[in-house]
Amino acid sequence: MGRTLQNTMINLGLQNACDEAIYQLGLDMEELEEIEEDAGLGNGGLGRLAACFLDSMATLGLAAYGYGIRYEYGIFNQKIRDGWQVEEADDWLRHGNPWEKARPEYMLPVHFYGRVEQSAAGTKWVDTQVVLALPYDTPVPGYMNNTVNTMRLWSARAPNDFNLRDFNVGDYIQAVLDRNLAENISRVLYPNDNFFEGKELRLKQEYFVVAATLQDIIRRFKASKFGSTESVRTVFDSFPDQVAIQLNDTHPAMAIPELMRIFVDIEKLPWNKAWDITKRTFAYTNHTVLPEALERWPVDLVEKLLPRHLQIIYEINQRHLDRIASLFPNDVDRLRRMSLIEEGGTKRINMAHLCIVGSHAVNGVAKIHSEIVKTQVFKDFAALEPEKFQNKTNGITPRRWLLLCNPGLAELIAEKIGEDYVRDLSQLTKLHEFVDDDLFIREVAKVKQENKVKFALYLEKEYKVKINPSSMFDVHVKRIHEYKRQLMNCLHVITMYNRIRRDPAKLFVPRTVIIGGKAAPGYHMAKMIIKLINAVAQVVNNDPVVGSKLKVIFLENYRVSLAEKVIPATDLSEQISTAGTEASGTGNMKFMLNGALTIGTMDGANVEMAEEAGEENMFIFGMRVEDVTELDREGYNAQEYYDRLPELKQAIDQIRSGFFSPEEPDLFKDVVNMLFHHDRFKVFADYDAYVKCQEKVSELYLNSKAWTKMVIKNIAAAGKFSSDRTIKEYARDIWHVEPSDLKIPPPNEPRDAGEDKTPNGTAA
């Protein structure tokens, strides 16, 4: 979520009033804002997407709740020591959190372990261990519409009789200390992005948020006029018409068997009725196609932790496979491919298959990704129910990612096209009229230059590094992962360095290359990539021949509040994943909206950005998905590229020989070995096209006016990538609710004053 103060002031229309009041107290608002800790309760794009979605849902007047875990420790703080990443605990609650309100009156029990008892009365899950879920509510204000939604985060608490009700007579002290075991569930965020680690505590976290949330939803449903009770038994027929639950990846997939357990075991609904309601309630968003990221929980772990849920999953699977067997008789391989249970070695539950079978809608997060989902990853399921599969291209909130982080640009745009674009970003197309307006061109360039100077000052103050604000700011910020190919950027940096040294007198467009992002603590290769970037920076930044022509900065502890500083100052945005690996990306959209040009592959939302802005207004290079597939078919041979490209050979030889690590010459042998022998992401295959494309970038940067014209064309084409547009599509195509851009009356006005503004029948 990042910081909340400035976002709240903007959405409430109070920023100027607050700035003025604080100024009159002799204080500086910006200084105050810097004191707030980031709430870093997610890993990367998926978590930040949820935050943008909450902002858009409130702005569109949807009655929506965001549910999650109130981690005591969020994503780790990254320190760089001697070029290596070192993790520190993110004690973000140390000074308290003024935005949250604990709601102990809504505390709920969550059960674990135990056993299943069959009887005439039905199935019972008994002898469980209980953990209490304590909700904390954070307000989510819409933009200038007097709507405030709720983000409800659950914290784990041990019940007061924890470890004391059983034969624990002797050790009272130990029993109280053991309360930590239960409360550890919400202690810390698992720091993996795009990687599945099948740990018991992680499964506990996933079930914990799901069980608490579903009880909360059902309590709210029963309290509403819809959950009409007939002879104490609730009628759940209208449940899917009143409740829509969106599964953000497979992490909350246990919600499907949990809702079935509630309906069948507790509410005593017949299976088929329960299953129909469940399917109509859930929809699933897939966020990645990388096989190592797909959740596959061992059956024996689920059996130990959630025995009843395993039975329900088996029953879902049996009925699912019976249906397929009747449609495709004797096709055993299809049954194996489509089963929720993977046999062979340890039996595992494929959570994505569970989500697809248990949802009425499945979507990818960019056109190209949704196609890959349909035609490759889940093609058997798409063949069975093509109407279930959709696309919902991701977006970003223009409130945080333009108004808040780039007020200079936001104001410049408002002067030209009015202020309405903030709620309707498609209006940015009106900027096309000003592409040839010399004054506007100069003003856009001036705002960018001011942002660059400001960021350069920040870097000097915080990290004691001096950079040249007139150089091109070439920025690559995102989680460190092989598929995102920070290594390819690094090879380009080495290539530029070698070119400067080969011919120091030759004209060179000065660059500051900024690379930042966190590596999962257990991801060895990602940590080696960080060390390599820092080792290269050490050599490049201290070579007198290079001077101020080329500087390399590794941006420590990349997070939302740092993104808000670096993105508005960026000239060139690096979006260089291997085609077919980045589901969407959202950083790409933030840079586009903030006046950077993009160098990128035809991957994720880059494809749609090129569609909107015109491919000639982006720096597109490298293999397309078809080329990657073709190269896989014939076999990727890295050596071939090394032999053919002298500059690539030189760069690799320098890394291998210890040119960048003289004190430990074979420090990077693992990296070089990977690049030659098991590089799934084909860095060498795109290297040449990348370097040539970068030459075009430098050439255009020399012509400031032509560069800025292209920038304006990009901003004018960024309207599609508002999360408001994304949420409208979810609302209409999946949730079946109507967004309303009507302002509800403020709480100080009498209620009837706004009666005529309220449309009929939109209560949801």
Automatic annotation (TrEMBL):
Enzyme Commission number(s) of this protein: 2.4.1.1
InterPro entries linked to this entry: Glycg_phsphrylas, Glyco_trans_35, Pyridoxal_P_attach_site
Keyword Transferase in annotation: yes
Cofactor: pyridoxal 5'-phosphate
Biological source species: Ardeotis kori
This protein's name: Alpha-1,4 glucan phosphorylase
Residue positions where N6-(pyridoxal phosphate)lysine is found in the record: 590
Family from the record: Belongs to the glycogen phosphorylase family.
Entry GO MF terms: glycogen phosphorylase activity; pyridoxal phosphate binding
GO BP of this protein: glycogen catabolic process
Superkingdom of origin organism: Eukaryota
Catalytic activities: [(1->4)-alpha-D-glucosyl](n) + phosphate = [(1->4)-alpha-D-glucosyl](n-1) + alpha-D-glucose 1-phosphate
Positions of region (Disordered): 738-764
SUPFAM superfamilies attached to this UniProt entry: UDP-Glycosyltransferase/glycogen phosphorylase
This protein's GO CC annotations: cytoplasm
Ranges annotated as biased composition (Basic and acidic residues): 749-758
Pfam families: Phosphorylase
SUBUNIT field: Homodimer; enzymatically active. Interacts with PPP1R3B; recruits the phosphatase PP1 which dephosphorylates and inactivates PYGL/glycogen phosphorylase.
PROSITE patterns: PHOSPHORYLASE
Keywords: Allosteric enzyme, Carbohydrate metabolism, Glycogen metabolism, Glycosyltransferase, Phosphoprotein, Pyridoxal phosphate, Transferase
